[in-house]
Amino acid sequence: IMPSLVGSEMCIRDSICILQLLKEDRYGYDLIKIMQKFFPDTEESTLYAILRRLNQEGMTEVYYSDISNGPTRKYYKLTVEGEKKLNDYMLEWKNIENIFREIGER
Question: 3-class SS at 11?
Fold first, then answer.
């Protein structure tokens, strides 16, 4: 059975967002800069759509803060459910690696 992540760029982007949120709470623009390192064509609208969906699915929590001494920013924080999803992604990626390794050995 092929893992569901094969060929899914959106899941790759989701995974990177989740991984970045796992490290520390982040605001949208900060995530955009990080995502553009991996996907230079990432647009703000794409990232914010991912963040909205992750939030609607309970993967993230949102809060507002003015810690930066500037304007109030919307921060995204990974939830326990988000951590579980990240673990699922990582297991699927391991399965993909194993499939490619097995194909390469033939």
Answer: helix
CB 11 within 8 A of CB 91: no
Strand stretches in 11-97, DSSP E: 26-27, 60-65, 73-78
Helix (H, G, I), strand (E, B) or coil at 6: coil
47: alpha, beta or left, given left = phi > 0 and alpha = psi -120 to 50?
Answer: alpha
pLDDT for the residue numbered 62 = 93
* pLDDT above 70 for 105: yes
Alpha-carbon separation of residue 61 from 18, 36, 39, 69, 101 (angstroms): 12, 23, 24, 22, 37
Q: Which residues contact residue 102 at a Cβ distance below 8 angstroms, ignoring those fewer than 6 apart?
A: none
Q: CB within 8 A of 88, min separation 6: which ones?
A: none
Could you tell me which residues come within 8 angstroms of residue 62 by beta carbon, excluding any fewer than 6 positions away? 55, 74, 75, 76, 77
**Percentage of residues in the chain with pLDDT exceeding 70?**
82
